[in-house]
Amino acid sequence: MNSNIVADFSRGVDGLLPAIAQDEANGEVLMMAWMNEEALQATLDEGYAVYYSRSRKSLWRKGDTSGHRQKVSQVRVDCDQDCILLKVNQIGAACHEGYRTCFFRKVDDDKQTLTIVEERLVDPNDVYGK
């Protein structure tokens, strides 16, 4: 299958589209990453989330290092076909900082301070080393 039918990568910057991972059970937004056409096709083929790492300039199979994988139950695309939503079963922490979600901080009432509002599931040093 040609994934250009599913998503319009020509609309993205450098052939990349934002991809949002959402917990299939409770709707919690877990993380945002980038996908290129190859990452989307790998995700569709393998059934687990595969992203594109801009820093490494290569595919990134979520959980290859940490074991914290994302089993994809559904792939959705927005109305313009330039944003991807993955409904996933998250195994372990989604965030590389050890939290279930990357959105573990909230902006306080002073609109200048961030407060951690989630519990850390794992110590990132134990998972990734220093």
Automatic annotation (TrEMBL):
Pathway: Amino-acid biosynthesis; L-histidine biosynthesis; L-histidine from 5-phospho-alpha-D-ribose 1-diphosphate: step 3/9. It comes from the Bacteria. Its EC number is 3.5.4.19. Its cofactor is Mg(2+); Zn(2+). It is found in: Cytoplasm. Keywords: Amino-acid biosynthesis, Cytoplasm, Histidine biosynthesis, Hydrolase, Magnesium, Metal-binding, Zinc. InterPro entries: PRA-CH (IPR026660), PRib_AMP_CycHydrolase_dom (IPR002496), PRib_AMP_CycHydrolase_sf (IPR038019). One of its GO terms (molecular function) is phosphoribosyl-AMP cyclohydrolase activity. Zn(2+) binds at residues 79, 95, 102. Its main location: cytoplasm. It catalyses: 1-(5-phospho-beta-D-ribosyl)-5'-AMP + H2O = 1-(5-phospho-beta-D-ribosyl)-5-[(5-phospho-beta-D-ribosylamino)methylideneamino]imidazole-4-carboxamide. The keyword Lyase does not apply. The keyword Amino-acid biosynthesis applies. Binds 1 Mg(2+) ion per subunit. Residues 31-104 form the Phosphoribosyl-AMP cyclohydrolase domain. Mg(2+) binds at residues 78, 80, 82. HAMAP family: HisI (MF_01021). PANTHER family: HISTIDINE BIOSYNTHESIS BIFUNCTIONAL PROTEIN, HISTIDINE BIOSYNTHESIS BIFUNCTIONAL PROTEIN HIS7. NCBIfam families: PRK00051.1. Belongs to the PRA-CH family. Homodimer. Catalyzes the hydrolysis of the adenine ring of phosphoribosyl-AMP. This is Phosphoribosyl-AMP cyclohydrolase. It comes from Roseiconus lacunae.
